[in-house]
């Protein structure tokens, strides 16, 4: 998963950072090599037709892995008339406003444009007319994508404006050495059983850890990551299916907030802010024993914990399936090479290509057809005690609910985590005071 978004792979800030980290890392995956029968589709206007060469531009934020996995080169080789140029802006918080500006102007757009999951609802709701409908495009099969991922990029009348790239299925990453010292099991199957089916059981394990914690360590890194994981495991969170804002009465928000506050007041967290320098240092210093861990987080942990952490980290199933992060690619209708761009977008997001990106970048596929390919099915992560990450994340991905995403999801999330939770965790405010501060921030963002 590319890094450098803020918090959507994480979403916004977090996503970007996370994705870039994975890319920079070159996560070591021990995967089998598969025979790929999904050869690049031949582009129209190929060599010798007198039309000349076509340059297709792909606009992304952070590292999507297509170039790194050799996909552009592979496509160009099969289509000598096509040259692919990638236009990269490192962070989504800089990329997305530019995308909206270019869409409004109808110019300055790449032939293919990436869209972060935190922005997909707004694009579908307000910009769908400015994108090509990919639902019936040649080479695109709805069955190739997870149902909930396909639904996120589709309008109510059946138009699909984006094809899913990666997703962020959830697991729990944990330190085996610290778990052992605190009297908790270390085998990943036994660890997963501790909290199977219930996020509150995860905190039960946290209580046991806290009572026996090795000096200077806590069970969790932060309450914000816990909140994100729990709230993402529901189908409705900040909005209901009709588009109504429901965060104040949402059962999933209440559960996530209450458990986050229980972790905070129970002294289970290191009180760190996600993706801050101190959080990064916490990995290197062994300051916390576990954290909710979407697939892209593995590369981030490996980078920040470094060689000293190799073999100490492992991966277990999360209490409930959830998604944290992911993106799409769409084809703007104002582009110069729409027909060829659609063919390339379809090919890049096909199961075989998603498997290749996973093998190179650890960006977990949104195409379930990739899960049975050796690059995914047999993937193990050496740094994490050879955890079978392909199997763990594929199992999680298949059961993720279709989460309703609204136009102000990012603002609501940020207010709850960066205002409400941090006031309790770092400033000593009460949970009631933290929630009131978050609510005020959200109401301002929603003009209420």
Explain this structure to me?
Helix content is 42%, strand content 15%. With 448 residues, the chain is an alpha+beta fold. The protein has 2 domains: 6-168 and 325-397, Periplasmic binding protein-like II (D-Maltodextrin-Binding Protein, domain 2, 3-Layer(aba) Sandwich), CATH 3.40.190.10; 169-324 and 403-445, Periplasmic binding protein-like II (D-Maltodextrin-Binding Protein, domain 2, 3-Layer(aba) Sandwich). A hairpin with a 3-residue loop joins strand 1 (6-7) and strand 2. Mean pLDDT is 89; it is low at 1-37 and 44-50. Keywords: Signal. This is Cellobiose-binding protein. Residues 429-448 are annotated as: Disordered. Pfam families: SBP_bac_8.
If helices are DSSP runs of H or I spanning 4 or more residues, what is the number of helices?
Answer: 18
- The tally of structural domains comes to 2
Cα end-to-end separation: 35 Å
Regarding CATH, which class of the largest domain? Alpha Beta
Q: What structural class do helix, strand and pairing data support?
A: alpha+beta
Please name the CATH topology of the largest domain. D-Maltodextrin-Binding Protein, domain 2
Average pLDDT reading: 89
Protein name: Cellobiose-binding protein
Keywords: Signal
Pfam family, one: SBP_bac_8
Organism: Actinacidiphila glaucinigra
């Amino acid at each position: 998963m590319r890094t450098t978004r803020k918090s959507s792979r994480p979403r916004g800030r977090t996503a970007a950072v996370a994705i870039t980290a994975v890319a920079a890392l070159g996560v070591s995956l021990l995967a089998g090599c598969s025979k790929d029968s999904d050869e690049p589709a031949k582009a129209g206007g190929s060599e010798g037709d007198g039309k000349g060469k076509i340059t297709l531009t792909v606009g992304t934020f952070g590292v999507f892995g297509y170039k790194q996995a050799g996909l552009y080169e592979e496509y160009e080789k099969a289509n000598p008339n096509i040259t692919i140029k990638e236009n990269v802006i490192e962070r989504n918080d800089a990329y997305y406003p530019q995308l909206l500006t270019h869409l409004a102007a109808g110019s300055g757009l790449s032939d293919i444009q990436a869209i972060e999951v935190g922005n997909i609802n707004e694009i579908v709701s307000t910009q769908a007319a400015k994108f090509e409908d990919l639902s019936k495009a040649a080479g695109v099969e709805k069955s190739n994508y997870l149902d909930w991922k396909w639904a996120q990029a589709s309008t109510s009348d059946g138009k699909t404006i984006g094809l899913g790239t990666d997703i962020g299925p959830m697991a729990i990453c944990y330190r085996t050495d610290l778990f052992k010292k605190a009297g908790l099991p270390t085998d990943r199957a036994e660890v997963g059983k501790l909290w199977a089916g219930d996020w509150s059981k995860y905190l039960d394990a946290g209580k046991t850890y806290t009572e026996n914690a090795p000096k200077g360590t806590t069970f969790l890194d932060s309450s914000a990551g816990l909140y994100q994981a729990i709230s993402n495991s529901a189908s409705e969170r900040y909005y209901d299916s009709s588009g109504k804002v429901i965060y104040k009465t949402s059962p999933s928000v209440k559960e996530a907030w209450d458990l986050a506050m229980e972790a905070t007041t129970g002294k289970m967290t290191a009180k760190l802010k996600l993706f801050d320098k101190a959080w990064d240092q916490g990995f290197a210093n062994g300051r916390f024993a576990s954290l909710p861990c979407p697939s892209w987080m593995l590369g981030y942990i490996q980078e920040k914990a470094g060689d000293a952490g190799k073999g100490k980290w492992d991966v277990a199933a999360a209490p409930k399936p959830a998604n944290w992060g992911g993106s799409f690619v769409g084809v703007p209708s104002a582009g110069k090479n729409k027909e060829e761009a659609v063919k390339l977008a379809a090919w890049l997001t096909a199961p075989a290509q998603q498997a290749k990106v996973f093998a190179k970048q650890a960006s977990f596929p949104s195409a379930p057809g990739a899960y049975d390919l050796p690059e995914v099915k047999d993937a193990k992560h050496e740094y994490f005690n050879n955890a079978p990450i392909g199997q763990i994340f594929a199992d999680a991905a298949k059961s993720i609910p279709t989460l309703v995403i609204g136009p102000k999801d990012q603002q609501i999330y940020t207010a709850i985590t960066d205002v409400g939770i941090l006031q309790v965790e770092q400033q000593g405010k009460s949970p009631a005071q933290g929630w009131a501060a978050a609510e005020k921030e959200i109401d301002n963002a929603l003009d209420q």
